[in-house]
Write a structure and sequence with these properties.
About 85% of the residues lie in helices and about 0% in strands. The chain contains three helices and no strands. It starts with 9 loop residues before the first helix and ends with a helix. The chain has helices spanning about 10-75, 80-105, 110-129. It is mainly alpha-helical and about 130 residues long.
Length: about 130
């Protein structure tokens, strides 16, 4: 059975403080690692979206070049259909790249939640001291 809190000696209190402080920092480290992993996942997802947008833009550029050739060769006709397809692919590719860029910009590499929790813990320690 543990002695009542008011009966504990200073060395016992310091020992508890060190033990609980170490445990708190281990938990804060685990939280920071989890938050960094989530941020990395968001950046990876944004990069994949940009890559998909880049592929769509490349296809759009190829179709646009073919459409221009057909439009010039026939003056008016099948080339305009190819031009519309190219423009649609370019718009889709541009939208994908913009979304991927937004995903990357919104991802924070700073573990905000872990830092907030550490601030709250430090404040609590100061209040109890």
């Amino acid at each position: 059975m543990e002695p009542a809190k008011e009966d504990r000696s200073v060395p016992e209190l310091l020992s508890d403080l060190i033990r609980e402080g170490g445990e708190m920092f281990r938990k804060e480290g685990a939280l920071a690692r989890a938050e960094m992993k989530q941020s990395l996942s968001n950046v990876t997802s944004g990069g994949e979206t940009i890559l998909a947008g880049g592929v769509a833009l490349m296809v759009g550029l190829f179709v646009a070049a073919q459409a221009l050739i057909l439009a010039l060769a026939n003056v008016i006709g099948a080339g305009w259909a190819a031009t519309l397809v190219a423009l649609a692919l370019l718009l889709i590719g541009g939208a994908l790249v913009a979304k991927g860029k937004s995903d990357i910009e919104s991802a924070s590499v700073v573990p905000e939640r872990a830092m907030d929790q550490a601030r709250r813990d430090a404040k609590m320690v100061r209040e109890k001291a």
